[in-house]
From TrEMBL:
Signal peptide: none annotated. It comes from Paenibacillus validus. This is Superoxide dismutase [Cu-Zn]. Its cofactor is Cu cation; Zn(2+). Gene3D superfamilies: Superoxide dismutase, copper/zinc binding domain. Belongs to the Cu-Zn superoxide dismutase family. Coiled coil: none annotated. Binds 1 copper ion per subunit. Binds 1 zinc ion per subunit.
């Protein structure tokens, strides 16, 4: 093979390798994909996911029966539901009922101003009830030997989106309540959870 033919073959092989490498290295996300291929990755059309991005977290002060702050809670909308992160102290060790109540008012010492459980669907009380639960029924909290609780729960039946019937940001607001005893998760109207020992207002949106 003469030198001119050898040079031509090398050039062809080099072009083929370069072409193959460029094809393999093309990213399929973002602006580069749109520029090279005329399309881009589409996000799922999920209104809940869109709303979750737009809703801002809500911070709540929990007050005790003496009217002083005993903890905080942060509410964040997620695609799965309303995430509630709670830290509180000054509780008796053991289980405590935990609910969202229907009115955004926390007047110490008994917090009866918060009304009953948030229950826009008219269900029976209790996570274990065949006709329940209330939208505001949440799992029991567990305080340690120092009376401190740190908990996180995602409530699938609640939202921060104010125009929804199950919104905790409804007109008049709602309230987070911690009870003195465990909720038995079946007995109405509040699972024999006893007195209300802490309360936090969730303001209207």
């Amino acid at each position: 093979m003469n030198k001119s033919m050898l040079g031509l073959c090398i050039a062809v092989v080099t072009m083929l390798i370069a072409s193959g490498c460029e094809r393999l290295s093309v990213p399929w996300i973002g602006a580069d994909a749109k520029a090279r291929h005329g399309h881009e990755t589409q996000q799922p059309d999920d209104s809940t996911a869109v709303m979750a991005k737009e809703a801002k977290p809500v911070s709540i002060n929990m007050i005790g029966t003496k009217g002083t702050t005993v903890g905080t809670a942060t509410l964040t909308q997620t695609a799965e539901g309303l995430r509630i992160r709670l830290e509180a102290s000054g509780l008796t060790p053991g289980e405590h009922g935990f609910h969202v109540h229907e009115t955004g008012a926390c007047a110490a010492p008994d917090f009866t101003t918060a009304g009953g459980h948030f229950n826009p669907d008219g269900h029976a009380h209790g996570l274990e009830s065949s006709s329940g639960p209330h939208a505001g029924d949440l799992p029991n909290l567990v305080a340690d030997q120092q009376g401190v609780v740190k908990a996180e729960v995602v409530a699938k039946s609640l939202t921060l989106e104010k125009d929804k019937p199950n919104s905790v940001s409804k007109a008049g607001g709602t309230a987070l309540i911690i009870h003195e005893k465990a909720d038995d998760n079946k007995t109405g109207p509040s699972g024999n959870a006893g007195a209300r020992v802490a309360c936090g207002v969730i303001s209207a949106g």
